[in-house]
Amino acid sequence: MGIVKTENLTFEYIRRDEEGNVDGITTAVDNVNMELKQGEFIAILGHNGSGKSTLAKHFNALVSPTEGTVWVDGMDTREEDKTLKIRQTAGMVFQNPDNQIICTLVDEEVGFGPENIGVPTDEIWERVEKSLKAVGMYQFRHASPNKLSGGQKQRVAIAGIVAMKPKCIVLDEPTAMLDPMGRKEVIHVLHELNKKEGVTIILITHYMEEVIDADRVYVMDAGKVVMSGTPKAVFSRVEELKKLRLDVPQVTELAFELKKSGIPLRDGILTREELVQELVKAGKSD
Ligand code: ADP
Ligand code: MG
Hints:
By secondary structure, this protein is an alpha/beta fold. It has helices at residues 52-59, 83-89, 106-116, 121-134, 150-162, 180-197, 231-235, 238-243, 250-260, 272-284, and strands spanning 4-16, 22-36, 41-46, 67-72, 75-76, 90-93, 168-172, 200-204, 216-221, 224-229.
């Protein structure tokens, strides 16, 4: 079984009026079946309100399915005695780093999680050092988190999760509040953790550029998974993505427009280098 698996997963938010009567039901996740492989870099895309955050909350046992089942590393998220183990297996990083950071020093912040689960003191400091090095923030270990940039804060938050030795990290739009530089730093760190430490990364984002290097992409719309595949396969479907009110990476968009205007290019071009190569080929065949 994959690190995360969902079977016929449906989640409904139920609104009630003052008397407690059901006022309305929103189906935020609608019969989702997915199996995410250990060690992969997975991206989940979708317009606002498509159900990404609600889906992600299931991976961390923050919510329980209305229908269907979610397993994290084989553990059914409905079983309450597994909640702690599930949260250690799949750590979660949220959008706003300021809401996640609670300590006054960076190293204390990163050690907070391990300390809370009773890791012996010597090992805590080993983990803190290793985690801060992994996210490139070791030189800031004695700094105050509120002096850091958004990207640096988010990397400290990620180090705090890494220090818990999770198999998987779920990140819900971790770069949405960052400047372009901070976004690049965070995405780079995630790829490093994935490649060097083998941590499964589940990245929720609406920035297409962040998805290009993922192993697998899922696209959500109205609570359903409507597309999945490699970035190349998914971004070949430009028209469909546009209908879902999603952009494609800038280079892909340009290639798509060039192709429409008659230049023979293949679909699913993701990088500048690929586009240049294809244009050279197209030039030669003239
Ligand atoms: P996304 O993360 O893709 O923006 P969400 O999972 O936040 O999507 O939301 C999916 C749907 O569920 C939306 O229609 C949203 O309005 C609704 N929703 C989200 N959170 C709540 C909540 N706490 N109570 C009621 N409805 C909610
Ligand atoms: Mg969301």
